[in-house]
Amino acid sequence: MSMKYYQIRKLIFSQADFPAFLEQEIGVKLIRLEEGKYKCRCPFPFHRDLKPSFSVDYVDGGWKWYCYGCAEGGMIVEFVEKYYSISCEEAVEKICSMFNISDDPQSCIEAMKRTEGTKSQRKEVETEHILLSQTCRNLLRDYPDDKDTVKLVKHIYESANEALSSWNLEKMKNLRIEIKKAIT
Questions:
Q1: Which of 55, 86, 113 is where one domain is finished?
Q2: CA nearest 16: which of 110, 84, 89, 95?
C-alpha cells in the first residue's frame, strides 16, 4: 500500500465519527458505558446477537470497534469493508465520500495538523451531542403531546447544535445537566 493510502487511513481514523455513523447509517442503538465507550448488539447481519457483544471505544485519537462474538475488530475502514462486503480501497473511498475527506495527500497532512491536539475535546463534544440527541428523541417519543417537553427539547437541541458548531464542551455538559434536572 502506498504512503498516500496510509495518510488517508490515519485521517479517516481521526476524523470519522464512527458512533454517529453506526447510529445514522446502520441504525444501531448504542449504549453509553462511559466517556468514549459504547456497546451494542453486533450490527453484522450474519451475527444474530442476543446480548450486546460489540464495543466501540475512543482510543489513540480515533474510534475502534471489537465484536466479542465475531472475535474481530478494527477501525471504521475494516467495519465498512466487512459490512458492505467491499475491498479495503472501496471502503476508504466510501468513507471519504461520506465524511467529505479529501484523498489529496497534501490536504490530508494539512487537515491532520489543523486538528492536532483538539480531537479529544471535539470527540467529547460530539459524544455529548449524540447523547443529548438520543435523550431528546426519547423524550419526544415518550411524551409527544406534552407542550412543555416539546419546548424543552427544542431549546436543548438548538443550544446543543450551537455548542457543537463552536466545539463548546462546557456548554454541552451544562445542557446535559439542564435536561437531567428537567426530566427528574
A1: 113
A2: 95
156 with 75, same domain: the answer is no
Higher pLDDT, 2 or 67: 67
Shared domain check, 127 and 107: no
Cell readout for 12 is 479517516
Which of 68, 89, 113 finishes a domain?
113
- Give the model confidence (pLDDT) of 11-36 as tens digits: 788 778 899 899 988 999 999 998 88
Confidence of residue 3 (pLDDT cuts 50, 70, 90): very low
- Percent helix, percent strand, percent coil in the chain, to nearest 5: 60, 10, 30
Domain ranges, residue 161:
119-183
Torsion angle (degrees, nearest 10) of CA 163, 166, 168, 172:
10
Distance between CA atoms of residues 85 and 113, nearest Å: 32
Q: How many domains is the chain partitioned into structurally?
A: 2
pLDDT > 70? residue 114: no
User: Do 109 and 128 belong together in one domain?
Assistant: no
90-108 residue pLDDT tens: 888 888 888 877 655 555 5
pTM here? Answer: 0.57
- C-alpha cell at position 158: 438548538
Task: Kindly state the cell numbers that stand for 50.
Answer: 442476543
Torsion of CA 87, 93, 96, 101, to 10 degrees: 130
